[in-house]
Write a structure and sequence with these properties.
Structural class: mainly beta
Strand content: 15-25%
Shape: extended
Distance between the termini: 29 Å
Largest sheet: 2 strands, antiparallel
Oligomer: single chain
Amino acid sequence: MTIPVFPTIPQYAYPLKRTPMWKTDVQTAVSGKETRIQRWTYPKWLWTATFETLRMLASSPAELQALISLYNQVSGQAQPFLFTDPDDNQVTGQRVGTGTGSQTTFQLVRAFGGVG
């Protein structure tokens, strides 16, 4: 199955908002002392994109039709889709992996500010 990609729409209202989401359990004892347990190693990211204008053309697919098509293709929130952040879509100067001479696949991990 090919994962669909969010359509490129030139009318993003900048800035695109990026928010990290973490999963942390907080247990509070009767004494009031809290214990925090981090459940995720890396955050999930929430992007909020607003649009100044979405064109809808009868003659050819435009932005509104592309968004409706993606929404129906992924059945609302039932399936994942890919999103290319126009402000943060490439990494340079970071190590990809340490080879063993025979290893051909690596887990890609991106460091943010020395973390990652």
